[in-house]
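Before the break, one more example. Copy the sequence into your notebook; we will annotate it together after we see the structure.
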Amino acid sequence: MAERIWQKSYSAGIPNEISPSGVNSVAEMFHKAVEEFGDKTAFSSFGTGMTFADVDRLSRDFAAYLQNELGLKKGDRVAMMAPNTLVFAVGMFGIIRAGGVQVNVNPLYSPRELQHQLKDADVDTIIIFAGSTPTLAEVIARTPVKNVILFGLDDLVNKGLPSPPADGRLTGTTAFTDAVAKGADLELQEPGMAQDDLLFLQYTGGTTGLSKGAMLTHGNLLANIAQFESVSCGMIDRGSEVVLTAIPMYHIFALMVNTLTFFKLGGTNVLVTNPRDMESFVKIWAAAKPSIFTGVNTLYVGLLHTPGFSDIDFSGLKISMGGGAPVQQAISQKWKDLTGRYIKEGYGLSETSPILTVNQLTESEYRQGIGVPVPSTDISLRDDDGNEVAQGESGELCAKGPQVMKGYWRQPEATAEVMTEDGYFKTGDIAVMDEEGYFRIVDRKKDMILVSGFNVFPNEIEEEVAAMPGVIESACVGVPNEATGEAVKLFVVKSDDSITEDDVRKYLRQSLAGYKVPKQVVFIDELPKSAVGKILRRELK
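Here is what the structure looks like once it is written out:
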């Protein structure tokens, strides 16, 4: 790759290109980590720790069960429908070691979404949390699923935690712990795996109708792990970090950064099963004393507004990362005031394993935007005709690198639609680059509001109103308007009841052009969000 402008902005020690990791598969990476960190705690949940050696033994037994009892062959898909639990970690490494392809499923899916994903991925085995079984029971007859492996919150934790019972309509199910016990007496033949072999089917794009499975290979994830390591600039100490995982592990951000990268680096992963229960989340944080935290903007907002959070000692916190949605400057500033560190925003997608760009972790100043491309990644901003735009102009962010997916599962047409002729993946996000090579997302192509021919990007308005005293969060959509084509409508969650519509408009007039100031302001108790905490603008529409 020719030298790019952003490489001049790299912190000392960041290479322009990543070098091969010396392993050919995530399974090989797993074995190396187990060898190096055997007795250290790899995962902890509800106060129960599990060492690297424990994960090795239990995942081996589960892999042997999949291979021998269920006849799993290399490349077969296995669905995982689970919140953050020890079972997710053991089950995932078991699937990988048996040569399977994990299909990550959101436990909060509707029956329609679940049926589509199980059929599309052609899944015959699912590992599922008991609390999600009513959804499966509803649709299982219309899917290829033959084997249902069930678990509850207490599995592998052994603290007597209550779990909802499994739906009675499901018959012939197997308990996860029974599967592991059975596998203990069986042989395991780990198949040879190469970088090009599939590792995950990561479903995405549900906002545009039916979701598609991004095919992520062992090589894609190994590349992104190496890219993340290379930008950490020696800030991560092998074998001694504590990472707090509240983003769901089935989400590509937590899957790559928290779950796989920190396993490789010998970190202890403290799992938060229900981040919506903010009170217990704060207690887990206080007990865990994390050095690394990853979250989405709404999660940071929630923590900052939870009583008791400001009493915690943050002296050990080294890195706070944000992704999945833009991190607002006002929130990053409040976080810095409390913890001493800004939130470092990164950017990526399910299709890119996920990280494409990140702000320099070593920088002590706040920098707006998504940072610079990680090593071995090229980014090109293009107009609607596919031409590169001039520096400083906005264009669709298109990316090329070893972390970009193989394509969409069994959808060559959909794959062709998102790839340029010269091999770049089109993200659908509009960005600008400054003269130092730092990128800023202006908005999603499809969220843009057109007011009297002017482009209005919701992010900009939400960013401004986030700094208004008494406002917790907001979301902005376009609504039809006879005079201007579209008008801006703003939904606001407030902590100060005295704020009026006029107050919000007056505040925004100080910093925004008239056509960007919302025509309508609606106060609501909470904004609709995805399981990861992304605000769902389409539901507000």
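Residues 448-540 form a domain with the GMP Synthetase; Chain A, domain 3 fold (CATH 3.30.300.30). Residues 433 and 439 are 4 Å apart (CA to CA). Try to locate both features in your own notes.
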